[in-house]
Amino acid sequence: MTTFQRSLLALAALTSFGAHAQSNATLYGRIDVSVNALRFSGPNATSVRTVSSDTSYWGLRGVEDLGGGNSVYFKLESQFQADTGVQGNAATFFNRESFVGLRSERLGSLALGAQYTPHIALTGKVDPFSRGYLGHIANLFQGAPRGYQPLMNNAVHYTSPNLGGVTGRIMVGAREGGLGTTHGAGLEYGAGPLVLGVSYDALNVTAASVGLPAVQPSVRSRTIGLGASYDFKVARLMGYYQTNDADRLSRVDGWMLGAIVPVGQGAIRVGYSANNLTTTGEAKQLALGYTHLLSKRTTVYTTIARTSNDGSTASLWPGRQDLAGRGLPAAGQDVRGFQVGIRHLF
Asked: How far apart are CA 174 and CA 114, in angstroms?
């Protein structure tokens, strides 16, 4: 056999393997980078210019048909900073989701691994900024100890089949060296122009993380989210309410109102949020943006936003990891921001 013939056989084998793998697994992702101008108020006022990655990620997902309406599915997803190429989490490679599960058209699905909680499913449907840009709903509502938990590790997640537009979710995260078992649940209705949903989680957090003496026992934190969205064609209106109760602490409440107005190949997005994140202060966020579709996969966007921090609050928009080591913002320091960016899906 000649070298040329061996090369053809090798190429045929690789092509066959690639086609087989492609039918079962898909490489996908998002690259999102923006230029940002930020202004921090107060006696120590300062301006910062950044090029930042706004939740860029890549992943592998796939489905194998088992027949009879049953299938196996999996997902492995990792975040990275597109502005530097650095891994999103140095300690965890697949830091977004990593799970495998079984799905039945009749009975629903059951997945095992690190998975997003029902809060993510709900807020993604009622956030006018689609959980991105400077108007991101996560700024005032996401993250333990007094906000919802976004990701549950070591989790068992059951999702019911869609019954007349209603879908239910139940999650349990094993303790495995943590502070205790984590629980989550959600119920959503989505049919026609209306979306309604409720989400819940309960987890233990350290006393020190909520401002109590470190020697005290861990604190049970419980968060409930209520969301709604209605599409009037000329505009989609959205609302969200969240409350958190933690042992030995006062309740934390917050809300958001927003809208998406289609304009040609783009959309105007607006959102206003408020949350008493601490016992001595409230944070408020106002954002106005425009997104424009260059294609089905590519979007250019611009956003202006203001976050007002009162008392001891020090909120900042997600995706500004490049400021984490600079002590910005300080407690009570307001932030104004402007961004222009591009997002591409693959």
From this structure: 11
Write the DSSP symbol of residue 324: G
Contacts of 338 (CB under 8 A, 6+ apart): 36, 37, 302, 303, 304
In order, the DSSP letters of 145-214 are TTSB--EEEEEEEEEPPPBTTEEEEEEEE--TTSSS-EEEEEEEEEETTEEEEEEEEEEEE-TGGGTS-T
Q: pLDDT digits over 202-220, tens only? A: 999 999 988 889 989 999 9
Q: Token digits for 329?
A: 């913002």
Q: What is the pLDDT of residues 124-143, one digit of tens each?
A: 999 999 999 999 999 899 98
pLDDT at 324 over 80: no
Residue among 114, 119, 19, 104 nearest 68 (CA): 104
Q: Taking the chain, what is the end-to-end CA distance rounded to the nearest angstrom?
A: 40
Instruction: Tell me the H-state helices in the chain.
Output: 3-24, 118-126, 138-141
| Contact yes or no for 342/32 (Cβ under 8 A) | yes
